[in-house]
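All the exercises in this workshop are built on plain-text protein records. A record pairs a protein's sequence with a compact description of its fold. Read left to right, the backbone structure tokens trace the chain's path through space. Once this layout is familiar, the rest of the handout is easier to follow. Here is such a record, shown just as it appears in the course material:
>
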Amino acid sequence: MIATIREIVLPRLTCNPKNRNGGTFQYVDIDALDNTRQIIVAPKVIPIDGAPSRARMLIYRGDVLFSLVRPYLKNIAVVTSGLDGEIASTAFCVLRPAKGIASHFLFYQLCQEPFINSIPTYGSSPPAARDEEFLNMAIGIAPVNEQHRVVRKIDELFSYLDTGIAALERSKANLKRYRAAILKAAVDGELTREWRVKNPPSGPAEKLLERILIERRRRWEEEQLAKFAEKGQTPPKDWKHKYREPSKTDRIDIIPLSEGWCWTTIDAIAKVTKLAGFEYTKFVDYDPHGDLPVIKAENVGKDGFKHTNFSRVQSKAINHLTRSRLHGGEVLMVFVGAGVGQVARVPFDQLYFLGPNVSVIKVTDKNVLPEYLEMYLRSPIGFKMAISFTKSVAQPSLSMETIRKIPVVIPPIDEQRIALQKINQYASIGQQTQLQLSVNLTRASRLRQAILKDAFDGNLVPHDPADEPATVLLERIKSEQ
């Protein structure tokens, strides 16, 4: 049978808590609800003297609270015995079921998405429904005994569903740990251990480190000679003495070194720079129609590069800031703020411009793959190394100098390639698993709505002809009202 909400609820009661004799009261506002589980989780305990102006709705056990402000957020809950006689916000429409109407039978009907989507709302800041129109909306009424059978069956099925959802959520958490474990195995040598047995390194770790240092000095000398040639100068006799040795790292005991691996620093294998123009903001203007997207800290996530709604600049406006042009493959590191230490590699899909709070680590050593450096810095070991150099006054930060000092463990380049291949294989498995988990969680949400639909279409529990008809129940409620 169909009835309006108004026909099956009792009049609402209001109360000014300041009229009570001192003490405190429990206050239920929107923030007190968990709208994913539709339960009251955090009522506030407020002194009578500090009662908010919206604390006016008297509530009792079994009342159904329904927020008419942004109803699509599903701020709906049943009042429990611990809140009997307390106060709720006027943001709620308080529905006190009449005798013969089960609280959860009413509650579950109101949780149906078709019902929620049919509620008319007004305004936009925020959109809200009107009490009178809401109370005149129609819902189904069943005999008293059938109401209780429906609620028991829904509770039973939702319990099974909640158990399944909890297992899916645990799997998501395990997947995160799995990814971290794979990254750790890649940089402590465990991931490539079997490959290394079959392909022993061609020389000791000292030889690899020596090659890295020789390569760094060679690049420096080539750059200096190019600068002298550009100026038409002859290199002075002692020009090679100006070479600055890279930052050194003490012996690191955080992981045992695999055969052929060595410790070095970012300074020895890469150049570290930050933006070359945003310090002088008068030279750089954002332009929504600009051809160059600007990379900021928000684009550097825990799982790598994130595409966002980029700010933009015009290429012609920043031609003089060539150091801030990013061509793809550079390793980015957030050096200030909440994401400090997070890294991502610039994609090759287009040119980018370097924005604030992000440094660029450009690998210059032929013995190191940029992809490997990114993987290392994203691993628990590399991230821990980076964070150990942060300074925190108002917010955590890294300087370019401290980034250069971050220790890096380097395997031979062939082993770097094998590690990356294995990481990509495991990442593909992880992505497939993540996708399947997301699909199953979405299905679980749809299944919850399907259960409610079946229940209120009359298909979830059998009808009993011996039950008092709903028409008689409704007449009795009207006479009692």
Remarks:
- The first strand starts at residue 2 and ends at 4.
- The mean pLDDT is 89.
